[in-house]
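Give me structure tokens for this 477-residue protein.
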Amino acid sequence: MNKSVILHVIGWILTVEAAFMLLPCIVAVIYKEQSGFSFLITIALCLLIGIPLLLHKPKEKKFFSKEGFVSVALSWIVMSIMGALPFYFSKEIPHYVDALFEVISGFTTTGSSILSDVEALSYCMIFWRSFTHWLGGMGILVFILTILPITGGESMHLLRAESPGPTPEKLVPRIKSTSKILYTIYLGMTILQIILLVLGQMPFFDAVTISMGTAGTGGFAIKNSSIASYSIYNQNIITVFMILFGVNFNIYYLILIGKFKNAFKSEELRYYLFIIFSAIMMIAINLGGITHFTHFIQVSAFQVASIITTTGYATIDFNTWPTFSKTILVFIMFVGACAGSTGGGIKVSRIIIMLKSLKKELSYLIHKRSIKVIRFDNNKVAHETLRSINVYFISYMIIFAASIIGISIDDFDFATNVTAVAATLNNIGPGLEIVGPAGNFGGFTDFSKIILIFDMLAGRLEIFPMLVLLAPGTWRK
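Here you go.
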């Protein structure tokens, strides 16, 4: 284990996090808020720990997948521990476990909250809460890779450990260039959404924070009514951008370089859009039938886009919907968005490959001599990818079941427990019943909140980094 490189990466994380905290400080100055001092204290602590780690240059810069997974897992934990301090120091979230839950929900783009009154927060805290979504959406280490002096295969281990999906890809030969391209697309789409929302007469502060939540598919709203109080125009803009941010960013790169045919041949994109369209139509019909069909299309489109992309915004309390509509939403909670997007969930590509694997196995049972090759986007799926998907799904189900058992100690109803775990493990935000759009996670005990915190981190980091970090064999010499 190359511990010196891991500590060096953590030094970068703390230093960059300190720099990012200057933005909520500026917001505090604009709105003349005392809470801004809590960010200054946290910045000092980040630099006090981070700079010595950064200045201590590792003698051996080479590291492998094990170090990559550990670096990513520890970086996200350390980043969250420090990121929670402004909430705690300012006493706006006076209990540290609650502050940690809130900031991890932000960084992992989950959007589950312990707050019953979001509007009671100061502007700088609301900004930081939304900004954590934007940082976590593309991945803080993807940003770090644009400046980190690690080259070659080593940086790919960091990208692989943090990027969502079964097979993260390089867009160009150099990882640093890939990271810059991803963040350029990400920033450009965020700015475009801000402009369109402002044109819809949304206040600038609201447009910035809502866009950061949409871009990261996070879902921290800045009003207690989530998005319900905004105009239909702005709700539709948010709907479109939630769907766009749930698309694999490789497709946007192909469009930018003029390879439109390759971009729209994506099998995952076709299934993703088909699932969205089907879910919208079924829910709209179930909600209102033919009467006021246009209204129900708009309402269901927003919620379907919000849930499948794991954003978690709401314009209505879907907890009151018919059972069929709620069942559709729970189903797409697990499906999630596309690989290589900012969305969570199992990912559409994994679902497709698992279904093709099932079809291949059934074909083999019927015709023993048949030889079937699983293809995805006309490319043969490697055995390593199939094995990784199978292990991922087994790990996912074990964590899902264990988490439900763990939080059931709080004695909430079954629907609350199941959807609370589904909402955090899939990085969605709201669930049903007590943790529905009109509720929050504040009623859980600290023990249950820690379980859900683990689920949020495991879901965002695709499970393996957290398992590698906790595996005893990782730390043996």
